[in-house]
Design goal:
Pfam families: Peptidase_M35. Helices cover 26% and strands 29% of the residues. The strands form 3 sheets. An 8-stranded antiparallel β-sheet has the order 9-5-12-13-1-2-4-10, with no helix packed on it. A hairpin with a 2-residue loop joins strand 12 and strand 13.
Length: 358
């Protein structure tokens, strides 16, 4: 059975003098019933009826053609786990954005077979709901806002066998730089050392000052022990935190070539367990990021190698989400959103490090 709905814009913040109704998204399915998850094709049409062009971050939204998390998927009340790619955008690159011209629309087709673990829940009717967080760019500002929900139902009658984004799968060792270039390998090793130090400082701060203003900003009333444990696992980088290689070259079938990406993590899951989480660092990471100390002279967090590395390790170690990018948007989430959003960890950690080390 096919169910669809349109979505209008509701704002957590305003930009470009936008108001409710200035953007809309419509979600449809090519077929309401299919035999295999390979046959699921969803089309999202995002329309801009205003008199101004609107520039948006494209990743982790329905504007993104890559196998990132564009939808929440359920079978009845049961969530279908995402196991695709988590991207850190290179916000200094125009390739990280898409512009919807005034009075125009953009249509994006999505296939989802490799991005979600349908096998774990079996055949049946699946509800695909658009990830509602979008981010608009105006000058140097990135503003977070949310679309109203749009969803569509698709029945899968037979084949839900698990697929992976890259068919050969992948596994390696605990957060170890893998690189044929000595300079890049050292750059990643230094980034890893910095990210571990930032995470360790954040874990220590949670124990020493659990009700700090920074904690309230980035985690509200989230359980202190659980947030501490997430940071501590990154800081310790123990085998119990999972196995992964940190690669300075993209895979031959990877996604760095599309542009606008600093790094990405490929998650391989079994049920709720992460069994592999390889991280790939694109050219922008090596050419455009700065070291940790640069934040003391005013460099923004997303432009540092330590922030990018910490963001990716949060995906790799405990499966954080990319609900919203940036510190401003991260502070605006509800408690559960803050607990699971990757940039809440990188922003809290970096804010804490700068406060005590600069």
């Amino acid at each position: 059975m096919l169910r669809q709905s349109a979505a209008l814009l509701s704002f957590a913040a305003a930009a470009l003098a936008l108001s409710s109704g200035d953007l809309s998204v419509k979600l449809t399915a090519v077929a309401s019933s299919v035999a295999s998850i390979d046959d699921i094709i969803l089309t999202a049409v995002v329309s801009n009826p205003t008199a101004e062009d609107i520039k948006l971050v494209k990743f982790n939204s329905v504007l993104d053609k890559l196998p990132t998390k564009s939808f929440k998927v359920k079978k009845g009340d049961e969530e279908v786990k995402f196991h695709g790619i988590d991207v850190v955008p290179a916000l200094g690159s125009e390739d990280a954005f898409v512009t919807i011209a005034a009075g125009e629309s953009i249509a994006v087709n999505h296939t989802v077979a490799t991005s979600y673990d349908f096998e774990a829940v079996g055949p049946g009717t699946f509800t695909f709901e658009v990830i509602t967080n979008l981010q608009v760019s105006e000058g140097d500002e990135i503003t977070h806002f949310a679309l109203d929900a749009a969803s569509v139902d698709v029945e899968v009658t037979d084949d839900v066998t698990k697929r992976t984004v890259f068919p050969d799968g992948s596994s390696s060792r605990t957060s170890t730089p893998v690189c044929d270039d000595g300079n890049r390998r050292q750059y990643m090793a230094d980034a890893l050392t910095e990210a571990r130090a930032v995470a360790g400082g954040a874990a220590h701060n949670i124990r020493q000052d659990p009700w700090s203003g920074n904690y309230n900003d980035y985690f509200n009333h989230a359980n202190h022990d659980e947030v501490w444990w997430n940071f501590d696992r990154i800081a310790g980088d123990l085998p119990s935190s999972g196995n992964r290689g940190l690669h300075c070259r993209d895979r031959p079938d990877g996604i760095c070539y599309t542009g606008g990406i600093a790094a990405y993590v490929l998650l391989v899951t079994s049920g709720s367990d992460i069994i592999s989480s390889e991280a790939y660092f694109c050219d922008w990471f090596f050419t455009s990021t700065r070291d940790l100390r640069s934040v003391c002279s005013g460099v923004d967090f997303p432009w540092t190698r330590s922030s990018v590395m910490l963001h990716e390790l949060s995906h790799a170690v405990f499966g954080s989400d990319d609900t919203v990018y940036g510190c401003d948007g991260s502070r605006g989430l509800d408690t559960n959103g803050k607990k699971w959003n990757a940039d809440n960890y990188s922003c809290f950690g970096m804010t804490n490090w700068r406060q005590y080390n600069c």
